[in-house]
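Troubleshooting entry. The earlier prediction with copper (II) ion gave an output that would not parse, so I re-checked the input for stray whitespace and re-submitted. Clean input:
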Amino acid sequence: MFKRIITAALLVSLFAVPASSHELTIKNVKGDAPKAGEPFELTVQSAHKFIVPEEVEILSRVKAGIIEDGKLIEAELKGNDPKLWIDFTVTPKDLSGSFIVTAIKDGESWCLTNEGGKSGARKDLEAQGLKVLSANKYDKYAKAIFNASTEDKNFAQVLGQPLEIIPVTNPADAKVGEYFDVKILLNGQPYTGPVWASYDGFVTEYENTYAYYTEAENGEAHVKITAPGWWGIRAAQSGLPGVEGDYDNLNLRAFLLFEVK
Ligand SMILES: [Cu+2]
């Protein structure tokens, strides 16, 4: 009896805390360098492995594009089912410094019910006679820095995303063996919590496996760079207040991506 209770509790907690939720990233899969005034091809990827494309996100829930004068210029998104990613292009106007590309997923309410996981607002699923054990929303923010140069400060722009990782170290100055410093803001306030980092290709076999772990204190984190390549730094905040009848908790995920040469 006692054992059964523990097992049931464990199952609920496993489903309630999807440590394995898909993470949103941005990647230049062609390896081309951006050219001023020309379309630069990129992808939005969603996966449990860094970075192995696994799922084409629902296009209507995703926005992506280049940041110009602090604003997102939304790109047209094209689902690429064979490749399991979303294709889009951005057109940088000038390449005298770095430019920022972002992808945002507005997650829908996702409920654990007596009939399994279902998307939809708590009140709507309950109206259908389902028992809702938990309702969570996962909003995801990916931000990538391209064309970093030692002369510019664009890389440090704050976009005002609810969970945002801002480079303190210029990606152009990132070096293997040195620390890459970031500032992390949660709703504009210093974030304290877990920070993971990895580089593309570090581990492709196993899910949720990162090269580096640290904890941000008062919004500051330091990541030791151990290899050249496309790096990602990730932060996560779960359990923020939800919206009555829709979802119980809001959960935020953020990824900052940049290249270490
Ligand atoms: Cu997942």
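This one parsed fine. DSSP finds two helices and 18 strands in the chain.
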